[in-house]
Amino acid sequence: MVNTTASSSKPSACLSWSRVLLSACLPLVLGVFTIVFTMQQNSISIANREQDRRQAIELRQQVMYDAYIKEISKLLLNPSFNRSNRQQLNYIGFKTIDVLRHLNKIQKRDVILFLYNHELIRRDKPENQRVILKGADLTDVHFIRSNSMDCDLRNISLMSVLGSNIVFERCDLNYAVFENAYMVGAKFIGSLMEGVIFNKANLADAIFDGNNMYIVKFLHAILINAKFLGIKPVSADFTNADLLNSDLTPKDLSATTHTFSNTRYPNGSFSVVSNTQLIVDGGAEQRVSLLSLLNYTN
Ligand SMILES: *[C@@H]1O[C@H](CO)[C@@H](O)[C@H](O)[C@H]1NC(C)=O
Ligand SMILES: *[C@@H]1O[C@H](CO)[C@@H](O)[C@H](O)[C@H]1NC(C)=O
Ligand SMILES: *[C@@H]1O[C@H](CO)[C@@H](O)[C@H](O)[C@H]1NC(C)=O
């Protein structure tokens, strides 16, 4: 008897319990579904907005790049354009520095190639025919030889540019000038680099890997932590350069064709201070001019 009542009442109790559970669960399930759905919608609309924002920036960059190329091309084609006119060159310089701030890496590279191809940033042109790019933002720009780009940048002049993490790979950089440039973390890979001038450049953490570096000038250059992998420089001028912690070994530095004067070696010690350098840097000039002044007045 006890058994049968228990067994007969159990299913109905179960049924009513599951009804209660179900009726309680349904709003809960709906609620959870609504929350999940809303969250998903939110993340979709955030992603959409992000994409819209990126597209707007890209569009703006393209418009700015096109306008720049169009305007400068027009200026160059104008019969009144005079390569030796400093005002016209400075106008191009200001326009370039300004537009570079807004462009992406590839457009920045193309602006430089544009100026180079129009012979406006060439070391082999007289100085009064060169566009000054002091402070131009070339951060992270990559110049890499490929099927679509030859990377022949022989004689290019990129003085005083801001080029941290700039990359040159398999390029012809013979006789290039990077004087005064800020090139922390720059990479020069498998490139031709004969006669390159890096005077006063900041090349801390730079990597030189497998380049043909012959008669390169590093006067007053910062080469702290710089790495010279593969081929070592030949006949480099390290006058006043800072080589602290660079990976050049005593053997690399022992070549008699290198020039050292007031150089800080990788180990932190200084090369013999040269007298000529002292005369140039150490106020001796003032004494000389004072003497000539005295002579003059006498
Ligand atoms: C170009 O400008 C330079 C410097 O202003 C001037 O000496 C020269 O005569 C100009 N050349 C022409 C063709 O106008
Ligand atoms: C580079 O400059 C040298 C002179 O400094 C010149 O002889 C040579 O033709 C130039 N090369 C290019 C590709 O501009
Ligand atoms: C530091 O390095 C230079 C150049 O390799 C070497 O001539 C000099 O003896 C070294 N100094 C010390 C204290 O090791």
From TrEMBL:
Keywords assigned by UniProt?
Membrane, Repeat, Transmembrane, Transmembrane helix
TM segment ranges: 20-39
Check the record and name the SUPFAM superfamilies matching this protein.
Pentapeptide repeat-like
Check the record and name the Gene3D superfamilies matching this protein. Answer: E3 ubiquitin-protein ligase SopA
Signal peptide positions on this chain: none
InterPro entries linked to this entry? 5peptide_repeat
Q: Which Pfam families match?
A: Pentapeptide
Q: What is this protein called?
A: Pentapeptide repeat-containing protein
